[in-house]
Amino acid sequence: MGTVTDATATAGDVDTESATSLLIPKPPRNNNPKIPQDSFHLAYIIYFTLGAGYLLPWNAFITAVDYFTYLYPDASVDRVFAIVYMIVGLICLILIVAFEHKSTSFVRINVGLVAFAVALLAVPLIDVWYVKGRVGVYGGYYVTVCFVGLCGIADALVQGSIIGSAGELPERYMQAVVAGTAASGVLVSFLRILTKAVYPQDSHGLRSSANLYFVVSIAVMVVCIIFYNVAHKLPVIRYYNELKTRAVNNEKEQKGDLTRDLWKSTLWDIVGTIKWYGFGICVIYVVTLCIFPGFITEDVHSLLLKDWYPIILITGYNVFDLVGKCLTSLYVLENAKVAIGASFARLLFLPLFYGCLHGPKFFRTEIPVTILTCFLGLTNGYFTSVLMILTPKTVQLQHAETAGIVLVVFLVVGLAIGSVVSWFWVI
């Protein structure tokens, strides 16, 4: 039987945590006076912002799909962006795992955040200086796809390292990261609704709204760069960094210097420990990505809502994804077998969404599709958050970062497979 408990932990002690809100739960009661408090929830807010930041570029590209589709009518923009972003990110993540012991998360995250900012800045500049709102200038399309690839590289550098570093901290900081990823989707969705309501749906309006997404994303990226470099100075973060340093030094005394063979052995031990958590995450995102966003934006239609329909569906998904990821600030399903089983049970969404295309007439209407889309987001958010929180605690503290990065590899494999499988809806 699965048990539901409050999601809290400190290094070596499990305390009880109550939540004052969905987004910012109270820190665990601190019975150890040596552990600094997270004053004003600054560390939590920083990790929440970082989670929002590393997913915001992807959300900006995918939410500006109206404008890119207008510019490049012969390209399947959603699906091409998804495949390029995920596959490039996956290759880079595998390289990062292989050579992680030769780099630091501090360098990887800063380089990745700067790369995000460069890619986000380049797209509106290309629009202003080269494309200029003209339809069919496919040189601009190919360059945009290249910058999507750069964002994939940046995502590999940032996402794996942030998840890894959050895994070295109490569980509430991992919950902050995953909730932040959902918040970025909600932010861009509401920006999309605002721009669609305010700007005319002509070339000028679509261009203005798309550029707004990228400007906001650039601003958030600058904030993330500042926040991340401030985070290391917070007493609570320094405390857990020092714990990790001591754990690393103790392991070094026991096993000696980290040779290539020792690293391989350690890495495979970590993979063996967390593999079922990883398979659960992988299946979650195979299911999600083969439905969202391609199926939502291209395959279902509404005579009543017209071009508002995909926007409403995307917003519904993102809001419920955020709700699911915030629920773990109140309750975490601690039975890993149940959480992993529920992840595989999400495969049932595939025949259900197939019914939305080819099933009974009622099943193809707006209400069933909207309910299914929101439930897809809710289950994606909750079980992603649960598995992300549980996984780093299954290994020793000094290996929590590596476990987090390996988990992100499983996640991106799921995203890549889901992006490819999404093409089957077209067949």
UniProtKB/TrEMBL annotation:
The keyword Transport applies. The chain crosses the membrane at residues 44-68, 80-99, 111-130, 142-167, 173-191, 212-231, 276-296, 308-332, 338-357, 369-390, 402-426. Keywords: Membrane, Transmembrane, Transmembrane helix, Transport. Its main location: membrane. It comes from the Eukaryota. It is found in: Membrane. It is a multi-pass membrane protein. The keyword NADP does not apply. One of its GO terms (molecular function) is transmembrane transporter activity. One of its GO terms (biological process) is nucleoside transport. One of its GO terms (cellular component) is membrane. PANTHER family: EQUILIBRATIVE NUCLEOSIDE TRANSPORTER (PTHR10332), EQUILIBRATIVE NUCLEOSIDE TRANSPORTER 4 (PTHR10332:SF10). Belongs to the SLC29A/ENT transporter (TC 2.A.57) family. This is Equilibrative nucleotide transporter 1. The lineage of its organism: Eukaryota, Viridiplantae, Streptophyta, Embryophyta, Tracheophyta.
